[in-house]
Structure formats: C-alpha cells, structure tokens
Please model this.
Amino acid sequence: MVAAPAAAAPTPLRYDAPEGGSALTLTRVGTDLQVADDATGAVVASGALAGTSAVDVRGTDAGDDMLTVDLGGRRLHRARVL
Model:
C-alpha cells in the first residue's frame, strides 16, 4: 500500500506594498484569495483559500496605504485584523 503524500501546511499570503502609497483590495474569487492593485487592476498576490493561514499586507511609511476587504457576500471564515 502506498501512502498518499501529506498535504502542505497552510502558509500566509504576503504582500509588501511599494513606497509612495497604495490602494489595494483583498477579494475571495472562487476558492482563491487575491490582492489587487486598485489603480491598475493587476493581481499582486494570490493563493488558495484552503492553503492560506493568514493574510499579511504591509504598507510603508512613505505615503498613505489603504486595504479594502471585499467580501462580496462571501465569508472568509475567520478574520482577525491587526
């Protein structure tokens, strides 16, 4: 009998915003989490919800940063904002 490979342990979804200020949106899209740049619409970080233990988005002191959490009617399960 061959054992199935162990599932990878969940890891944090991390993104370090560039200097000068950023406006970002965290969204659940299907079974994934995405962090998108509001100015360009580009997805700057993403990962499977099931494989994500936390979301760590860091701004800088050089400009104002804003993070919007768009639940879009869907739950993220547990959420803790630090």
